[in-house]
Structures are given as C-alpha cells and as structure tokens.
Amino acid sequence: MRVKNAGVCGDGGTHFIELEFDDGSPTKLIGLDARIPTPPHLRRIFLDAEHPSNPNARILSIGSPEEASVIELLTKWADQNLSFLRREALMTPGISHQLEADFGDQMGLSILLGALNRTPPAEKKRVLP
Question: Least C-beta-crowded within 10 Å: which of 15, 60, 86, 92?
Fold first, then answer.
C-alpha cells in the first residue's frame, strides 16, 4: 500500500491522498475537510473525491463505523510505511527539501492525525453571580 497521489486545496487546508494497494484493488481517495473556518474538532474525513464539495464526495460522520475503518486503513498504511523517525521528520515544520513522495506521506499522516486528534473545545464553565 502506498500513496500514489496527494494534494492540498486552496480553501485553507483541505487535503487528500490516493492510496494504491499492493493487491491491485482500485485506488481509494481519502481526504480531510479542513476548510477555513472549520474548527479542528469538526473536520471530517471524506472519500471518493479530491474535495468535499465535489458531488461524488462521501463525507463520513465523525465516530461512524465507516470512519473507523478508514482510520484503521490509514493506521495500517502508516505502520507499514513510516517508521517513528520518518513520522517525526514529516511532521517537522519548515522542511523545504522534501521529495515528491515525502509530500504524499506527509498528507496521509496529516489526515490520520487530524482524525485521531479531534478534541472538542472545553465546555465553558458556568460562573455563578
């Protein structure tokens, strides 16, 4: 399994990858809807398109079984392809000497981490007068 294609959209942060499978299965487009002003805890995974506004895009519900299976697939991809040191290097800001393959891996890792690290903002504490 490898990233065949990747991209970042000009909407403030939406990005996608196209996964290619070793067994010849059809490739899979996976993206993270990170349009501005979407807060991180509401960013959703989408499938089958390069952007969530595409009519072919299937936007997954947060916490759904289908989303869980996509996160599992991305975790498997990362475990098979990215060592701990490579993951750290890909997530280091300001790297300007990356290869094209690095970009695809960085986008895949970013989608995975974006889904795993969603935490809702803390509830406002009610202050009594």
Answer: 92
